[in-house]
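It is worth pausing here to work through a concrete case rather than discussing structure prediction in the abstract. The textbook approach is simple: state the sequence, then state the predicted structure, then interpret. We follow exactly that order.
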Amino acid sequence: MFWDKKLAQWVEEAKAKANLPARLVLSDGQQHDFGTFAAPQVALKVNSASALPLLLEPSLDNLGEAYVKGKIDIEGKLSDIINIGYSLARSSEDARFLSR
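Step two, the predicted structure:
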């Protein structure tokens, strides 16, 4: 329940800032869209609940760590994955800067 609320809030904030053609798919089948689109260019699939803290602070380091450790899978063209990864990391950095 805690993670559901945090994830929904994170996705809505990212959607408001960047409107990304990406979808977050949780291991229980829940889906959250980071933007408005006909079909996502990138799907971020969560394999482990241990990925959730890393996703809520989506730096390039955290996203890379989650992927390398098999906590998430990413589907899409490499260029789209990189662009969306940068956009998520940037939106997180902007939020941290503004909260200072």
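Step three, interpretation. The beta strands are 22-25, 31-33, 42-46, 72-76. The chain has one domain: 2-98.
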